[in-house]
Amino acid sequence: MPNDGRLLGNLSVLVSVVETGNFARAADALGLSPSGVSRAIGRLEAHLGVRLLQRTTRSVHLTDEGQRLVEQVGPLLTGIEEAAVSAAGDAQAVRGRLRVSLDPMFSRLVVAPKLAAFLAQHPQLEMEIVTRDELGDLIGEGIDVAVRFGVPEASSLVARKLLDTRVLTVAAPSYIAAHGAPRTPKDLASHDCIQFRDPATRRPYDWEFHRKGKVTTVATKGPLLVADSATMYGLCVAGTGIAQVLEVSVRDALDDGRLVELFPDHAEELFPLYAFYPSRRHAPPKVRAFVDFCVAIARRA
Asked: Does this UniProt record's set of keywords contain Transcription (predicted)?
């Protein structure tokens, strides 16, 4: 018999026979037939070249060689079982270092206010948060998971859609007080609109308005072009101009009056939120826990 997993299994059978007192009870404990137990002991004795058990019609006793063997391997087998149980627990534990890459606006306005509760729930977890609009090289940078808005481009990354959020047009009360509120999307031509740069084309995104299945594109202008969503949010709240933003990121600001939604009947466009993983293997518990956390807080927002 080769010195492989079968040897360990046969040793476990021997210890079970000793602990239970006979082949029948050992078979019940192991989920084997009595003949299966007998064959395992026979293979072990043949492999070691010694008799380990003295069998009678009434009982089973260890030989001297068997006694020495059980005394040596019994604690080892117990240790292996305990290690396996511990490993199984570790495999499901949310622990270790988690490096995440987040959209700046999502990080600042959605994740950051709720992160303390998440870390308190998982005290063995350490996190590093990288914020930027571009996805970047997750594998090269050692990123465990990234969360971004928008339809993913084809890549080797695993993309999981988390939810959809509406695209809103918003302004601060101070901007409306100074410049008035546009009544229709076409009125934006005479307002300061904060432009956001498309990282793919490096040009400003078009301003689209979706209503009843129809899409209207409106030409807008403004003195500011930004490439960071959190900066755009800060400028908008400060009254610098009108912006198009994602509802999930500004729901609190709308609820407490820092921002006002414009054209609510033209806000049917949906923008997806995705989680990206660098591997197609089963995501570890710390990644799954963080993604579940993002979904929960985003849906509440």
From this structure: yes
Same domain, 86 and 231: no
Residue with tokens 């302004």: 171
pLDDT digits (tens, 9 = 90+) for 243-268: 999 999 898 899 999 999 999 999 88
Query: How do residues 197-214 score in pLDDT, each as one tens digit?
Result: 987 788 999 999 999 889
- DSSP code of residue 199: T
In a shared domain, residues 48 and 68: yes
Residue 142 sits in a domain whose CATH number is 3.40.190.290
Is-contact 118 89, C-beta < 8 A? no
> Are residue 66 and residue 133 in the same domain, yes or no?
no
Do the beta carbons of residue 14 and residue 44 sit within 8 Å? Answer: yes
For 285, the token pair is: 């518990």
Element (H, E) at 197: none
Q: pLDDT tens digits, residue range 78-116? A: 677 666 655 555 556 788 999 999 988 899 888 999 999
DSSP 8-state code for residue 56: -
Write down the residue that tokens 């009056």 correspond to: 257
First-to-last alpha carbon distance for the chain, in angstroms, is 62
